[in-house]
Amino acid sequence: MADRLARMHTAEHILSAIMRIYYAAPRNLELHLNEKKTKCDYEPAVPIDEAAIQRIESMVNDEIRKDHAVSDFTISREDAEKRGFDLWKVPPDTDEIRIVKIGELDAQPCSGRHVGRTAEIGVFRIISHDIRDSGRLRIRFKVVDAGEERRKA
Length: 153
Ligand SMILES: [Zn+2]
Prior knowledge:
The protein has helices spanning about 5-25, 50-65, 75-80, 145-150; strands at about 30-35, 40, 70-75, 95-100, 105-110, 125-130, 135-145. It is α+β, with helices and mostly antiparallel strands.
């Protein structure tokens, strides 16, 4: 089993892809990741309610279960810019950009560690969320083993 941080980190890519595709939230504005839970901030252009939170969780799990291959490749900064990758988190002095792909769902610059296939993530669970007056949505999540969930059910 892949280590928990790699699992959580890969889940964050999928969550951010879902937020971008379905809720017009182009970026994860703030990310804090540790072994227990993680905190992600988005500015969705689409209103978010409780039902949306449920949908987000289940869409992330649907993508995990598709067992996408996670792969990476390296391109020059110039190529990355031409191809429209979002380089806002990449340090300005980095010339070689590593792009991490989650199947055909997502491709983002990233230097972190990931699982090899999305099914290794297990089950994605949103622990809590809040919406600020500014419209910023904060999501805290964890990943659990699929077997662990079944035992509790
Ligand atoms: Zn990553």
